[in-house]
Amino acid sequence: MMNAFLQKLSLPYGKSLDIPTLEDTYSRLDILLIRGTLPQDLVGIWCSQYRSVVIDSTLSDIQYRCVLTHELAHIALGHSGCSCNSIEEARARKLTADLLLPQSEYDSEKRRSSNLWELAGNLNVTLEVLEEKMNI
Ligand SMILES: [Zn+2]
Question: Structurally, how many domains does the chain consist of?
Fold first, then answer.
């Protein structure tokens, strides 16, 4: 993972990148984190204009952790949010998988898990993030 912005924040990777660490990172960056209701199928949104991230309040802890990381990836990549194109979206998804699923953790859990759902659960990520990792 070669993002200078995130290196400067010295974020931990994988399982150590938990919800309190992520929430603390937003406050260190002086970005307002709001749990609320979002339209349609949106689960999270970054808006640089207001230095705010809004995340659906009905998400599970695993979903919340993944969305916190995904929106942080947009911020680290310098995306302005709200109107991301598909290339920006793909880059944010890739960086999210890099942050949450370092190779060593992924490999060792893969040996211990008998299916994708178990593997996602053991790695504390959604199936979407796991599938992103597997497509790399
Ligand atoms: Zn996104």
Answer: 1
Q: How confident is the model at residue 1 (pLDDT cuts 50, 70, 90)?
A: low
What are the tokens at 48? 């640089």
In a domain, 47, yes or no: yes
- What's the gap in Å between 75 CA and the centre of ligand 1? 10
CA of 102 to the centre of ligand 1 (A): 20
Q: How far apart are CA 136 and CA 119, in angstroms?
A: 17
Task: Please state, in angstroms and rounded to a whole number, the distance separating the CA atoms of residues 48 and 35.
Answer: 17
- Beta-carbon contacts of residue 84 (< 8 Å; ≥ 6 apart): 74, 92
Whether residue 104 is contained in a domain is answered as yes
Instruction: Provide the residue range defining the domain that includes 89.
Output: 14-131
pTM above 0.90, yes or no: yes
Ion ligand 1 residues within 5 Å by Cβ:
89, 92
How far does residue 114's CA lie from ligand 1's centre (Å)? 30
